[in-house]
Amino acid sequence: MYVINPKGELVYNGAIDSVPSANPRDIGRAQNYVKAALAAVKSGEMPAKATSQPYGCNVKY
């Protein structure tokens, strides 16, 4: 996932959250990095975490 601020700067690049699982029961224990980055951008700040290791499948062309 990528989060870009209103200035067009990449401020977050990585996984959606901290738990590499597709199990719905794991959602509650995961830290959502994208929501945190969006909240920081909305408040005019930089995200506390700018990158994380992505997981899952990649986009293929």
Main attributes?
2 strands, single chain, flat, alpha+beta, 61 residues, 1 helix
What does this structure look like?
It is a single chain. The protein is built from one helix and two strands, in the order ββα. It is α+β, with helices and mostly antiparallel strands and 61 residues long. The chain has one domain. Strands 1-2 form a two-stranded antiparallel sheet. The longest helix has 10 residues.
Question: What level of helicity do the residues show?
Answer: 10-25%
Please tell me how large the radius of gyration is: 12 Å
The termini sit apart by 17 Å
Structural class designation = alpha+beta
- Described by its quaternary structure, the protein is single chain
Order of helices and strands: EEH
Q: Number of helical segments?
A: 1
Average pLDDT across residues?
94
**Number of discrete domains:** 1
Query: Looking at the structure, what is the overall shape?
Result: flat
The strand line-up of the biggest sheet is 1-2
Beta content comes to: 5-15%
Low-pLDDT segments:
none
Number of strands: 2
| Major sheet characteristics | 2 strands, antiparallel
What is this entry, summarized?
The chain is of the alpha+beta class. About 15% of the residues lie in helices and about 10% in strands.
Topology record:
Elements: E1 2-4, E2 10-13, H1 33-42
Antiparallel strand pairs: 1-2
